[in-house]
Amino acid sequence: MNSESRPLPPGQLHIVYTCFGGTHSSPVAAAIHLGKLPRDRLPTPQELLATPRFDTVHPKHRGQLAFAGLDKDGHRVYVLGRGGLSADAVRSLLETACLLIGGRPARVLVCDTLPCVNFCMRIGGWLSREAGLVGIGRPIVTWGTLRAYPRIVRLVREVEEQVRRLTRPGRG
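Now predict its structure.
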């Protein structure tokens, strides 16, 4: 059994960072959460481009939950491109899926990264992923992501605080 399919110990969560395509803000948030990108400075463009899934996910893969890793407390972190679905719809679908397989819906924390996305990320992401103009879109989305990075770091810190509240003893 791999780390993606083992039952969760008490108090552990599935943390799902979600955005439209699952290829810009959500993989960056997951990488920050997992300690793969810095919190105390802007990453270099090369660090962003080396982030798993950054500007590489094809639109046909939206809706596929991608395991990003285990955080320092053993919580499973995922990335999900949700297309036009709202974060609430994603939350409901994941909670229902958990119930169908015998899990507990409170074990899934859906984190919407779209509020961190700026105009350059939208335009660059569309050019790169939808229009296939990677040479034009990738530099724009990378620049936009660097501008949005402090907001993404704040979001990750808020998520980590929420995880601490949800998993403190007695909350199980």
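The helical segments are 25-33, 45-49, 87-100, 119-130, 134-167.
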